[in-house]
Amino acid sequence: MTTLFPLPAGSPPRPVPGSRSGTQPPVSVAGFRDLMGAFPTGVAVITTYGADGRPRGLTCSSLASVTAEPPTVSVGLTTRGETLRALREHGGFAVNLLHRYGRHAAEVFARRSENRFAEVAWAPSPEAGLPWLTEAAFVTADCRVTRLTEVGDHTVVLGEVSDVLRKPGTPLLYGAREFAVWPGGELPPPLPAAGELAS
Which of 17, 108, 187, 199 is deepest in the core (most CB within 10 A)? Predict the structure, then answer.
């Protein structure tokens, strides 16, 4: 067993046994895609409004939980894309988690289109008025932008979740460049909050 000791301040990091040198160049784009393609995820559509009042959105598989207090998620969006530009201007966005019948919406928001929202059913959310996909998503949420960090050609967006609506549904999945359906079928209903438990 190897015993680890803290390094003195300013010391270079020690190489991990069996690892490559820190000077190793980054993996190719194809290699990176192979890595992430082997990590199946749910499928989300991120939506918001542009300065012209028109809704914008795109399909996103990079949604991740950051912290529960405050409730925060992260998404990675193309820095030059119109959805990120609209999100910056509006200051908020919606997360739409697609169910097993939401593949059409996933494909619509993944391709270039003059008006993606003409091809799906949507409505403003009850609280923030953000675009919610009313037929393709089984979980929808409003988020307030709290931080933007540019990394390469993408921008990581942190958003504080302010409102969530969940309906019965079976999640749509994506991985290895293919869609799939959650094998367990419909998700069980959410657990009640601590204050809602029967005494």
Answer: 108
